[in-house]
Amino acid sequence: MKSLVSISDFKVEDYLNIIELAAQFEANSYRNLLKGRIISTLFFEPSTRTRLSFESAINRLGGNVIGFADISTTSSTKGESLHDTITMVAGYSDLIVMRHPLEGAAKYAAEISPVPIVNAGDGANQHPTQTLLDMYSIQKTQGKLDNLSIALIGDLKYGRTVHSLIMAMMHFAPHFHFIAPPELQLPKEYLQILNDKNIPYTLHDDMQEVIPEVDIVYMTRVQKERFSEPMEYERTKNLYVLRNSMLDGAKPTMRILHPLPRVNEINTDVDTSPHAYYFEQAHNGVFTRQAIISYLLDL
Ligand code: CP
């Protein structure tokens, strides 16, 4: 039985297999591989893309979905523990997709669950299925994963998609550029990993200076829900706003990714730019999540 808790649970070979499988699902999305199986989607934290793309993926594979999108409708509100919830739901389904606000919640669930757990985001820690769809999007737009220059911009401290993407892409000889206010820069433990592996990176506070250099601009939202101090959020929320006028010197092949949702950090005048790829990226989530489920269940 395999779970996907951290992007580091997978090796390079797994990343490439999932990307190849996702391409096959994009070419032929409706298949009955999950007929007779039940998948649970337990969202203890809000979601639009992750939950609905998982549910679209499951439906396209002929499976059945049970679950919840709002914990206020569950017995968690009566004090039921995560342990008991997972133990119950594992008896109702063949695989559990879960999002939880606490870092480590998915790891804990995987330790006690008799069915595979897929981490759909645990606090500020990891979002491995987002990373796999990001990698699929990078492969589709750049034709490769190797030797790319990647700018990550915004909330690099709390951004779980950033943390997972760095851990995966570090295997493909990247050059990273980290652009964030000092208080939202990438946590030291990630910089230490890159140092240990001699992976080049630069820290910036001006995003305009890196745009002409890079193949991928990965924008992120400043995550209001992670701040304990509201003033810190107010001070940082609009520091990095990407506008169409800033893209003049970009490489023609440069693409802008964003895990979404966005708030203000990408102006809507970017949406019609040939560099914008974030809505297609979100659509790629369906095929990538079909690939992840079929890979974990050996379908
Ligand atoms: N990218 C992402 O995780 O979006 P949702 O929060 O809408 O699932």
Features:
single chain; 299 residues; alpha/beta; five-stranded parallel beta sheet; binds phosphoric acid mono(formamide)ester
Give a short overview:
By secondary structure, the protein is α/β, with parallel strands linked by helices. It has helices at 12-27, 49-60, 82-90, 105-112, 128-142, 160-169, 188-196, 230-236, 278-296, and strands at residues 38-43, 64-68, 95-100, 117-122, 149-153, 175-179, 201-204, 216-219, 255-257. The structure holds phosphoric acid mono(formamide)ester.
Number of helices: 9
Listed once per kind, the bound small molecules are: phosphoric acid mono(formamide)ester
Ends apart, CA distance between termini: 13 Å
Q: What topology, given as strand order, has the largest sheet?
A: 7-6-5-8-9
Which percent bin holds the helix content? 25-40%
Task: Give the low-pLDDT segments.
Answer: none
Q: Could you tell me the mean pLDDT? A: 95
Gyration radius (Cα, Å) is: 19 Å
What string, H for helix and E for strand, traces the elements in order? HEHEHEHEHEHEHEEHEH
Which percent range describes the beta-strand content?
5-15%
Q: Total strand count, please?
A: 9
Structural class: alpha/beta
> Strand count, sense and closure of the main sheet?
5 strands, parallel
> What form results from the Cα inertia axes?
globular
Account of the 3D structure:
- The structure is a single chain.
- The protein has 9 helices and 9 strands.
- The protein is 35% helix and 15% strand.
- The protein is an alpha/beta fold.
- The model has no long low-confidence stretch (mean pLDDT 95).
- The protein is globular and about 55 Å long.
- The strands form 2 sheets. Strands 7-6-5-8-9 form a 5-stranded parallel sheet, with helices on one face.
- Bound molecules: phosphoric acid mono(formamide)ester (CP).
- The site of phosphoric acid mono(formamide)ester (CP) has 9 residues, from helix 2.
